Amino acid sequence: QVQLVESGGGLVQPGGSLRLSCAASGTIFSINAMAWYRQAPGKQRELVARIITSGSTNYADSVKGRFTISRDNAKNTVSLQMNSLKPEDTAVYYCNADIQSRSWDSQRPYWGQGTQVTVSS
User: How high is the pLDDT of residue 115?
Assistant: First the structure.
């Protein structure tokens, strides 16, 4: 079994910062891409940022220059540093990872339970 556990959400004022973290645990042979998605009320889930094993990253246009994704391959963790937060960043943020549990398994996507980020004065 594989689990992704997120932490770090909360309430922050516009212009403030938050750092989200996600740890993968369980039977893990390898992890390819790790990512953060978000879903605001009434909207579809969208990709926020993605990082692959080599460290190459990509971001949604709406967060470029404000958010930074990073990962620790030795600890199977991924983080999202969010700066200059705006009310429109309010959403439930989900951690996602493409994980191969055993050497003979196929890679498959796993999701965390989600963490609420609210940006409001």
Answer: 97
